[in-house]
Amino acid sequence: MRHTGQEYIAGVLAGNRRMVAKAITLVESSRAEDRLLAREVLAGLMPHTGGALRVGISGPPGAGKSTFIEVFGLYLIEQGLRVGVLAVDPSSRRSGGSILGDKTRMARLTGSRQAFIRPSPAGESLGGVARCTRESQLILEAAGYEIILIETVGVGQSETLVAGMVDLFVLMALPNAGDELQGMKRGIMELADLVLVNKSDGAFVDAAQRTAGGIESALRLLHGGSVGWDPEVMTISAAEGRGLAEVWSLFSRFREGMTASGALAYKRQEQARAWMWDLVRDGLTQRFMAHVQVKDILQGLELRVVAGEVTAVVAAELLLDRFTDGGGADGL
Ligand SMILES: Nc1nc2c(ncn2[C@@H]2O[C@H](COP(=O)(O)OP(=O)(O)OP(=O)(O)O)[C@@H](O)[C@H]2O)c(=O)[nH]1
């Protein structure tokens, strides 16, 4: 049965898990009628959002992100909090599976009534995944989830997207004394508000300390992280559940400090502004590609550009003219 916008809104605000799941399915749909309904639902929920701490977690495969999210999520629940977990996983398109896709990986957290875990939507472009994740985040906030953890796998573009939708961005690293930055690109290190060197247990404790020291020096030179916050480095062991209270206390310190200084409000305002422009750009591209007059000549023109018969500049101008006045001089 199809629900009305009001039913979605009331269900989500009441924290009804089934309605939360359905509302996320709704925003994941790209059908025109679903988009219209999703817009109504999101507008109704909007005044009830913004209360959660939004955290992005990234790092190379095998760093222990899933293990950490499971134990940290359970720790937060013990503190009386409700936790939402989302993923931005561009690889889910190809493999069909995804981070979080396999629920056995976070079995205990998945089983908790205080947690809501949603894998990355499949079959979407990275921009599409980002849109769904942003909208799902709003739904979870309106439903009363107080901490939203957004996991992403380290492939560059997805980190930048996630960093653009969260308050605090965490990078997870492995103890590896020989290569303290572990091939992490400078641009990604610059996004980090906190670097967690995981697996600081057993034989890895010393290596983890050395890695943390190396990363600390690198961070000092980078001057990265959120405006108004100096990035920090900590060693933890997700497997042994060590460091969870310290991570939570850092999150709280981040939120309090950034709220008091106004930096968090400013960051969110700028994120909203950038999000709007992302949507305008995406929408324009979609409309451009679907424009009849543009479609008429697009393919042929592209081939002529590739063949060197028409310059890119002339071709682009011609296409844009067609788009804006539906005609344009065909002076080729
Ligand atoms: N020794 C040790 N092993 C850990 C720790 N955390 C995770 N692991 C192990 O490291 C492996 C990878 O952990 P995951 O949590 O799946 O890592 P991930 O970063 O989510 O990996 P991807 O989803 O592939 O990106 C698993 O075998 C974990 O059991 C830790 O703190 N100490």
UniProtKB/TrEMBL annotation:
GO cellular component, one term: cytoplasm
CDD domains on file: MMAA-like (cd03114)
InterPro entries in UniProt: GTPase_ArgK, P-loop_NTPase
Superkingdom of this protein's organism: Bacteria
A GO molecular-function annotation: GTP binding
PANTHER family: METHYLMALONIC ACIDURIA TYPE A PROTEIN, MITOCHONDRIAL, METHYLMALONYL-COA MUTASE
Family to which this protein belongs: Belongs to the SIMIBI class G3E GTPase family. ArgK/MeaB subfamily.
Protein name as catalogued: Methylmalonyl-CoA mutase metallochaperone MeaB
Gene source species: Magnetococcus marinus (strain ATCC BAA-1437 / JCM 17883 / MC-1)
